């Protein structure tokens, strides 16, 4: 404005200044809403700001935090992935993405993201600790699946028991492990045990197709045709 005060440029500059003031006001409101744990309001304000400030990594990270609190992890991942690209050496974003995938039961993607964190900083304590946990779990699951392919069902059951001991906190891993144990018992001609474990899975996930099929196979072995 000061260097070239022609009419056109003055109008454009004033418009941008007004917009800038408005965005700063929205930013203050978004932070306030976040601090008051009103995450829905914070998200809608951040949506407005990010429509203009598309490349702001910090704002994306803040919106990701709100999405996590609102129970929308997949939207949080989308923002965190953008933040990881926008800010160099963003180990925190990779760590958070890996944690979310892990909580969702996607151990393979979790392992891939935590490795990205360690590429940036091999001494990152949180990432290294998570890496060890996910790697161990991943290896056990891969090993169990290999045993199932080889028809070694007893060994696979033992391996899935180990999976449940490795991760007792995140329930999705216990559910998946039980689903596979139910499959092994059914294949191993142990119908009574199979029915019991499959039923446990179906109490948690009534529409689990694999558990329904495996329990049906077990019922057939027991001549329980109606069931």
From TrEMBL:
Heme in keyword set: no
Any GO molecular function: misfolded protein binding
Region entry Disordered, spans: 1-21
Coiled coil: 127-154
InterPro entries referenced in this protein's UniProt entry, alphabetically: DnaJ_C3_Co-chaperones, TPR-like_helical_dom_sf, TPR_rpt
Chain intervals with Basic and acidic residues compositional bias: 8-21
PROSITE patterns the UniProt entry points to: TPR
GO CC annotations on file: endoplasmic reticulum
A GO BP entry: protein folding in endoplasmic reticulum
TPR repeat placement: 91-124
One Pfam short name: ANAPC3
Keyword line: Coiled coil, Disulfide bond, Repeat, TPR repeat
Official protein name in the record: DNJC3 protein
Source organism: Caloenas nicobarica
